[in-house]
Structures are given as C-alpha cells and as structure tokens.
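User: Could you check the structure of this?
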Amino acid sequence: MHLQESGEMYLETIYVLLQKSSAVRSIDVGEYMGFSKPSVSRAMGLLKKAGYVETDESGYLSLTKEGKELAEKIYERHTVLTQFLVKLGVSETVASEDACKMEHHMSDETFEAMKRFIQK
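Assistant: Sure, the predicted structure tokens are below.
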C-alpha cells in the first residue's frame, strides 16, 4: 500500500521517538507533531489497518517489519537531504525543514544520485 505524505510523516515520527525511548504512545506522537488526539487516532488506525503499526494491550506503539523498513527509508531521505542542503550552504534549521518537504516527493533515482554526491 502506498502511503500519503502524512502517513509517512507519522511513521517517521514513531521511528524517531522509538530511537529515544522504547515506550511510545499515540499521545507522544501527537505532542511531537503538534497534532490533536483525534487526528493521531485516525492516522494510527489507518497505519494499523495498512500493517505498518501495532499497539500492545497498554497502548504502546511498535512498527511492524514493513513499517520499520519504510520509516527507515523516509528517515534516511530526511537526513541525507538535510546534509545535501547544508553542503550547499543552507542553514541546518532551514535545510531540515526543506528536507522534510522534499523527502516525500523525490524519485529513488534522484535520491540515490544525491546520496552518491554527498559520499564523495
């Protein structure tokens, strides 16, 4: 299933939060993203239905194998794009904000070319 940009943002957020803490709940996602409880609840329902996210009996979130793979891909795009823009002279803050916008719309071919360029 292909996710829309918002779904990818939720997965990336869960991934980032899980790097900082082993216990992440929907409320943590909402606070991090600045979204309301109903918005996060709806998104979590869609991500669960799509097979990207699971919750345990206490309400803690985890990424399925497929969810983790997609979240890692999105996060890698974000970090590489941020590095690329910083190398061009863009401030870290602006580079990160712009990378967030770009990461969801870029082809794999373009991303891989940028990644190779940064590694040189």
